[in-house]
Amino acid sequence: RPTAVTTLRLRTERFAERYSAIGTVKARESVTVTAKVSEIVQQVHFDSGDTVAAGAPLVTLSQRQQQAALAEAQAAADEAERLFRRQRELADQQLIARAQLDNQRAARDAANARVAQIRAQLSDRVIRAPFAGVLGLRQVSPGALITPGTAIATLDALQRVYVDFPLPESQLARAGQGARVTGSVAGYPGRSFIGTVSIVDTRLDPVARAALVRADFPNVDRVLRPGMLVNVELAGSEREALLLPEIAVVQVGRESFVYRVKDDDSVEQIPVTIAARSEGRVEIAGGAAAGDRI
User: Fold this and answer.
1) Is 223 exposed, middle or buried (0-12, 13-18, 19+ CB in 10 A)?
2) What are phi and psi for residue 135, nearest 5 degrees?
3) Going by C-beta distance under 8 Å and a sequence separation of 6 or more, which residues neighbour residue 153?
4) Half-sphere exposure of 175 (CA within 13 A, CB side)
5) What is the mean pLDDT of residues 49-64?
6) For the segment 135-174, what is each residue's pLDDT rounded down to a tens digit?
7) What are the φ/ψ torsions at residue 43 (nearest 5 degrees)?
8) Can you give the pTM of this predicted structure?
């Protein structure tokens, strides 16, 4: 019996080639909060998962030694200031040498500098959020001894996130700044995330011959988390192209063929050149023409 076939007229359509890759989510700002000094934790001001503003206090360390040193230094600075004022009055009356007044001025400045130094040490005992973001798991408790480098918590700015993915050098032309990127993650099937290309790395990997592309994604509901794998699609600019269903193309080795129906309804096999494939369709770059019945 004759084989039933489906035919279509080859015509130009709007087509945008798509490139797919696997990317990794990175927070816009990310840091592991640590201490500068070794001290006992006096108070913890946050819980795991809290959202904090920039400059919000996270942990207060013991300050008794520094408070005592500050009181001593402040008293010394006040005394130095009183002596300076007294000697300035005497110097104005030419009862003491100007050099003696200069020495007292230096002593006063040194005492004030000592006060400023201790205040800075006190500020190091209050660990604050360097930027607004979401805290991870709390790693310390009141009474614990922490040292420089001890992890207190992670802090990530998640309102917007980056997705980094590799792009071959042959595709770099489509990765202009602002190009649209579509992403999906395994944890939320059926949901698409829309972002834009932020920047393309200035260097290519000499082995893979690919550049790292960074796309910017809004993340108001914090669904995208640092470390997630994202399936990204980067669409090129739209153009007019001859398109066929991919199933209509027969691949034999490196050659591609289609079956064209002639005017007498007989069929001939013709070689074609494939320019691109996307979403089950192929772009015909040569071998067939618009109006051909395939």
Assistant:
1) middle
2) -85, 150
3) 32, 33, 46, 48, 58, 135, 136, 137, 138, 139, 140
4) 27
5) 90
6) 999 999 999 998 998 899 999 999 999 999 998 887 787 7
7) -155, 140
8) 0.65
Is residue 118 within 8 Å of 66, Cβ to Cβ? yes
pLDDT at residue 154, as a whole number: 93
Q: 280 pLDDT exceeds 90?
A: no
For the chain, percent of residues with pLDDT exceeding 90? 35
Dump the DSSP string for 62-103.
--HHHHHHHHHHHHHHHHHHHHHHHHHHHHHTTSS-HHHHHH
| Bridge-based pairing state of the strands 239-245 and 126-128 | unpaired
Question: What is the model's pLDDT at position 30?
Answer: 92
Question: E strands along the chain, which residues?
Answer: 12-15, 18-33, 39-44, 51-52, 57-61, 126-128, 133-135, 145-146, 153-168, 180-184, 193-205, 210-218, 229-235, 239-245, 250-252, 255-261, 267-278, 281-286
CA dihedral 265, 271, 272, 273 (to 10 degrees): 180
The residue type found at 63 is Q
